[in-house]
Specification:
Elements (H helix, E strand, L loop, with lengths): L2 H30 L11 H14 L9 H12 L16 E9 L5 E4 L6 H16 L3 H18 L5 E10 L3 H5 L5 E10 L12
Antiparallel strand pairs: 1-2, 1-3, 3-4
Helix pairs in contact: 1-2
Length: about 200
């Protein structure tokens, strides 16, 4: 192996593990920036600044069509680096909720939740919702929600549109829970999709 090859391999090794370090750090500081941890509230500003720096380094603040962001996103997903691992006890982490508004031509609106076949599938759905929230690539987020909406539309083929409403469910702190406080829901985004009418050819979106 020549010295040039060694330098190339070393550069690839350093770049790969630098991306791992940035992704892990970004996941950590994004959780810490929400507060409600062992650090004083004054540290929240520091964590938010660190979140901005790591997000910028990972290309998350570049336009969706930027080739640098697309290359970085593709590599992070292919290498499995984008999935951070942040487990903090005893705090209960926020969870996410997805509700489908099924709209009909006569003005009726029905509400559906993602259907699961069992407890194992339910855990996967929870993980999927966490991943949807962490997606920085808007087109990927929209496509994922459209696929989930299509599954709902197959059960309601006469619907004219399906609106996927995504939100964050925040659990109260321990003190609030002991005082009887309930979880709160915060709307984050909504996407509306339309699919072929029953007389048209039914194909996946």
């Amino acid at each position: 192996m020549t010295a040039r090859h060694r330098r190339i391999y070393l550069s690839c090794f350093v770049s790969h593990f630098l991306l791992i370090l940035l992704a892990a750090t970004q996941d950590l500081v994004s959780i810490l920036s929400e507060g409600e941890n062992i650090f004083p509230p004054a540290f929240v500003r520091v964590w938010r600044q660190a979140d901005i720096i790591t997000s910028t380094a990972l290309g998350n603040r570049l336009p969706d069509a930027n080739p640098v962001r697309q290359v970085l996103t593709a590599y992070l997903h292919d290498a499995g680096i984008e999935s951070g691992y942040g487990f903090f006890a005893p705090n209960v982490p926020n969870s996410y909720k997805l509700v489908f508004e099924v709209r009909y031509r006569d003005g009726r609106i029905e509400y559906e939740l993602p259907e699961v076949a069992g407890s194992a599938a339910g855990i996967r759905v929870v993980a999927l919702l966490d991943n949807i929230e962490s997606m920085r690539y808007e087109l990927l987020r929209r496509t994922t929600l459209k696929m989930l909406s299509f599954a709902i539309w197959r059960e309601h083929p006469d619907a004219t549109a399906i609106r996927a409403v995504f939100g964050r469910v925040t659990q109260p702190p321990i003190e609030g829970f002991l005082q009887g406080k309930q979880e709160t829901y915060e709307f984050t985004s909504a996407y509306e999709f339309s699919f072929p009418s029953p007389g048209e050819r039914q194909t996946a979106p």
